Amino acid sequence: MKKMFLSLVTAAMLLPALSLPAQATYHSEKRQDARAIRQDARSEGREDKRECYRNDDKSNAHCRQDKRENRRDGRRDARDEKW
């Protein structure tokens, strides 16, 4: 009886420790996905700004604002992905 109780207590204590690495891996993957989204938004923002300059569509200030908006959207999407 005592051995059975001891083994149950030991198992109950070890069970959360076994699931901890899986949870850390899940969070790590989410952080990496969010980082990739932010980096993609940066490169898209740069490319949009270059296109804006090349096409001479808008003033410099408007091109910069478009780039900022693109990055802001990327950060928001990354937050949504992460949390």
Give the distance, in angstroms, between the N- and C-terminal Cα atoms. 46 Å
The secondary structure category is: mainly alpha
Q: If you compute it from the alpha carbons, what radius of gyration comes out, rounded to the nearest whole angstrom?
A: 24 Å
Instruction: Return the average pLDDT rounded to an integer.
Output: 80
The helix/strand order is: HH
Q: Work out the helix count.
A: 2
| DSSP E strands, number | 0
Content of β-strand: under 5%
Largest sheet: none
Q: Helicity, in percent? A: over 70%
Apparent shape: rod-shaped
Question: What does it look like?
Answer:
It is a single chain. The protein is mainly α and 83 residues long. It has a domain at 33-83. 93% of the residues lie in helices and 0% in strands. It is built from 2 helices and no strands. It has helices spanning 2-55, 60-82. The chain is rod-shaped. The mean pLDDT is 80.
Considering the chains and any ligands shown, give keywords for the structure.
mainly alpha, about 80 residues
Characterize this entry briefly.
By secondary structure, the chain is an all-alpha fold. The protein has helices spanning 2-55, 60-82.
List the helices and strands and how they pair.
Blueprint: H1 2-55, H2 60-82
